[in-house]
Specification:
- The chain is an alpha+beta fold.
- Helix content is 31%, strand content 32%.
- It is globular and about 50 Å long.
- The structure holds guanosine-5'-monophosphate (5GP).
Amino acid sequence: MEKGELVFDGNEKQIFATGEPDKVIIRYKDVGTAFNNIKRAVFHGKGVLNNAISTITFEALRDAGIKVHFIESISDREQLCLKLEPVPIQVTCRNRIAGSLARILGVEEGLKPQGCILDLRYNNDDLGDPVINDDQAVALSLVTAEELRHIKSVACKSNEVLTELFGRAGIELVDFKMEFGRNAEGELIIADELSPDNCRLWDARTGEKMDKDRFRLDLGNVTGSYAEVLDRLKKTKR
Ligand code: 5GP
């Protein structure tokens, strides 16, 4: 696939055009950012690890019949993906209360709700990605009510698939953030990545954090933990 011009240079990923109008190449960088870009560092090899992990998670979702933008990994840090129009909503699926929700609710990290909790954020850097509810998302025309129902159903199904995938590797999927985009037909498809950068992953036996919280909370061994996630996923791959 011919790699065309750089069309988007993000903090952690770049997007390149291709010879086909409906496809792009996404390149994973080694940069890590947190707290709306306030914190930033380079982790050598992170992009390669996230490309490999995201390939496994996207393939698991696709095998379960869920539509994802990922087509194939084409180099150690690049994926060929569908070109989508981003939907400016972040959907977080939580199997335990941790991170921002633990802070907002004033509870210790780890509280396990009965089902999963779905949160929405308005993807808007200037506003700091505020939490919004369904009515607000529809009022802003970010999505229709019907699209929101579809997004939530896809998020719940994806949670089941990914919980099982990581569970086999001895890793608990505590929460994860998904983003969606629309193709030319207006179909909603999972975009972005699903890696330790946007999933909270705890060692199922020890509870040790194996995700970006190692960077956010200055716990060290960021790439070592990502490499351990990949290694375990590879060993349990069916
Ligand atoms: P929280 O809202 O608790 O901070 O994060 C919930 C989940 O979404 C976590 O798995 C976290 O990694 C992911 N997440 C939240 N905000 C961002 C963000 O701006 N970028 C990325 N990559 N992941 C995020």
